[in-house]
């Protein structure tokens, strides 16, 4: 704080009589000078943002970061590392790949204008707090030790465009929170322990172009995604089943290996043991097939028709004999008739 000291001069009566009043222009200039100095005596950063970032710093364990101090009063003017401000409001905190530790604080919701929070790959643990700034547009928390579930309060962050929560230890189902998040274009929940089906409200993500949910235990079908403007979809190594919508199969970058629907192929009849033991029918040659398999006389196979078997020869001989007997009997009958007449 600036202190302005005033010194009062005691002037004798004769001196008072000779005192000359300052001109009005000089007094006006002094007032302007005081007004220009007063803002420098006050913290520049908005008080509510100061409270929020001090709470975050303490929750992270007060790590060694350039210009960050415990119970700081002016992060914007003091140039805290990774902190960006606009008109005395903190709008961005970017500390990716910093060795932080600790966890996130519940004071995050107190930021008044925070747009970007990037704490990816900083080794922070704990859970994702329910309270997050409603002004948030980009949230990067990937590559940490976060546990618990994805908070349902994401539904209030209607200005979100990018959410990256991949490579953590998140569990449970993806919450049904996307009904009003129509501006989300990039979503990454990959490499966690998420389960259950995709929520119905995902069908409202009309700006979604990239979705990565690989390496989880998500199940169910993919129908909720088929009408989205996706360009990049990765669902590998999950428990998805059922047919894959044709629209998804036409995506230029679609990865789906490691799901049950990739191996649920019906077994062909030829692969069954019964079919292997059944003899194959010979090709049709226009002849009446015999009851016994045909073989060539020299023991080698060929494409020529097999000669008649012994059973067929006996049948032909008997047929000829019956015809001869019939003819002889008819001749005898005719001769007897002529003789008797």
From TrEMBL:
Gene Ontology CC, one term: membrane
Cited InterPro entries: Leu-rich_rpt, LRR_dom_sf, LRR_N_plant-typ, PRK1-6/SRF4-like
Record flagged with keyword Transmembrane helix: yes
The protein, known as: Leucine-rich repeat-containing N-terminal plant-type domain-containing protein
Gene3D superfamilies hit by this protein: Ribonuclease Inhibitor
Disulfide bond found in the keyword field: no
TM region(s), chain numbering: 319-340
Localization terms from the record: Membrane
Entry-linked Pfam families: LRR_1 (PF00560), LRR_8 (PF13855), LRRNT_2 (PF08263)
Signal sequence coordinates: none
Chief location bin: membrane
Keywords in alphabetical order: Leucine-rich repeat, Membrane, Receptor, Repeat, Signal, Transmembrane, Transmembrane helix
Disordered, as annotated region: 278-307
Domain Leucine-rich repeat-containing N-terminal plant-type: 48-85
């Amino acid at each position: 704080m600036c202190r302005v000291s005033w010194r009062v001069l005691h002037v004798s009566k004769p001196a008072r009589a000779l005192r000359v009043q300052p001109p009005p222009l000089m007094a006006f200039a002094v007032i302007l000078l005081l007004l220009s100095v007063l803002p420098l005596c006050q913290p520049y950063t908005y008080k509510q943002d100061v409270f929020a970032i001090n709470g975050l710093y303490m929750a992270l364990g007060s790590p060694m970061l350039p210009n960050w101090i415990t119970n700081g009063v002016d992060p914007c003017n003091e140039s805290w590392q990774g902190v960006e401000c606009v008109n005395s409001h903190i709008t961005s905190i970017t500390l990716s790949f910093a060795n932080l530790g600790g966890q996130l604080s519940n004071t995050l919701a107190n930021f008044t204008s925070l747009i970007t929070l990037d704490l990816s790959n900083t080794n922070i643990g704990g859970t994702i707090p329910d309270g997050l700034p409603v002004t948030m547009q980009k949230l990067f928390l990937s590559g940490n030790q976060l546990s618990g579930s994805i908070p349902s309060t994401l539904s209030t962050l209607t200005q979100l465009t990018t959410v990256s929560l991949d490579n953590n230890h998140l569990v449970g189902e993806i919450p049904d929170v996307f009904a009003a998040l129509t501006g989300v274009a990039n979503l990454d929940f990959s490499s966690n322990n998420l389960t259950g089906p995709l929520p119905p409200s995902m069908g409202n993500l009309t700006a979604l172009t990239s979705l990565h949910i690989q390496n989880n235990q998500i199940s169910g079908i993919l129908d909720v995604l088929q009408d989205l403007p996706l360009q990049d979809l990765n669902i590998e190594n999950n428990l998805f089943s059922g047919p894959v919508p044709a629209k998804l199969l036409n995506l230029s970058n679609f990865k789906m290996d490691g799901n049950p629907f990739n191996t649920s192929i019906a077994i062909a009849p030829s692969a069954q043991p019964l079919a292997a033991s059944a003899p194959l029918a010979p090709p049709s040659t226009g002849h009446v097939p015999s009851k016994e398999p045909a073989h060539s006389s020299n023991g080698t196979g060929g494409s020529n028709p097999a000669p008649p078997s012994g059973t067929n020869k006996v049948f032909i001989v008997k047929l000829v004999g019956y015809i001869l007997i019939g003819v002889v009997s008819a001749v005898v009958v005719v001769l007897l008739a002529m003789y008797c007449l």
